[in-house]
């Protein structure tokens, strides 16, 4: 098998998974910018209860995955390493799920491994409508990401205070600590953020969604302040009218954190999986 990276480098990427014999699919999660695999912990637990295999990992420089020897802080790099991780662990029958930047990675990745993919799920994904939020929003995110993670968290989460109170440990692990790691390499992470705004990158995302022969589900937080739900849905649906769309009410940029039960209802519906508590 041909990889983009040496195998000893691929093995440095920290992976987390549970495989079940007889599972018809393997759900592969790719997290977003300034995040880590723990964001999907509650969703993974529900999949485990249903004996559905799942697999996730921390991208290099995120969570507990180190920077690799030749890490380049650009989304194209993360697309290549994600491809290699999936191939290295011989994953197949994949439902490829990406949140935010992870949604952009998924959109750029799935044509490269189309024979391994059964379905695509995009959660508040990176898309061209970010420019409609205005350069002031982008500038504010860049200026606060290293020195004021709590302020940034209030933008990401519609119900910030309620979520923080109910899931204090998860809030620190998934929302705050990842932002704090940016202070170790602010220039590198800001370069990564800049690559997400590349018109070339956004154009390739559009092209792949438009030409996809795989089923795509789009799940949006109703009150996302990073990618406006109404504009994102309109944009992506115009690219591909076969996309299934679900909106999680009263949530922001991470609906699977703020209202996991409602998110799971739509997620399982898209996968045609029945969970006792979600139908």
Task: Please outline the helices and strands.
Blueprint: H1 7-10, E1 15-18, E2 26-30, H2 41-49, E3 53-57, H3 75-88, E4 94-99, H4 101-109, E5 117-123, H5 135-144, H6 149-156, H7 160-166, H8 168-181, H9 186-196, H10 199-211, E6 216-221, H11 229-239, E7 244-248, H12 255-258, H13 260-271
Parallel strand pairs: 2-3, 2-4, 4-5, 5-6, 6-7
Antiparallel strand pairs: 1-3
Helix pairs in contact: 3-4, 7-8
Order of helices and strands: HEEHEHEHEHHHHHHEHEHH
**Shape call:** globular
Instruction: Give the termini distance in whole angstroms.
Output: 41 Å
Q: Biggest sheet, in brief?
A: 7 strands, mixed
Relative strand content? 5-15%
Q: Structural class, from secondary structure content?
A: alpha/beta
Low confidence ranges: none
Question: Total number of β-strand segments?
Answer: 7
> What value does the Rg take, in angstroms?
17 Å
With strands numbered from the N-terminus, the spatial order across the biggest sheet is: 1-3-2-4-5-6-7
Q: Write down the overall mean pLDDT.
A: 89
**Fraction of helical residues:** 40-55%
Q: What is the helix tally?
A: 13
Short summary of the structure?
The protein is α/β, with parallel strands linked by helices and 279 residues long. It has 13 helices and 7 strands.
What does this structure look like?
- With 279 residues, the chain is α/β, with parallel strands linked by helices.
- 45% of the residues lie in helices and 14% in strands.
- The chain contains 13 helices and 7 strands.
- The protein has helices spanning 7-10, 41-49, 75-88, 101-109, 135-144, 149-156, 160-166, 168-181, 186-196, 199-211, 229-239, 255-258, 260-271, and strands at residues 15-18, 26-30, 53-57, 94-99, 117-123, 216-221, 244-248.
- Strands 1-3-2-4-5-6-7 form a 7-stranded mixed sheet, sandwiched between helices.
- Helix 2 links the parallel strand 2 and strand 3.
- The chain starts with 6 loop residues before the first helix and ends in an 8-residue tail after the last helix.
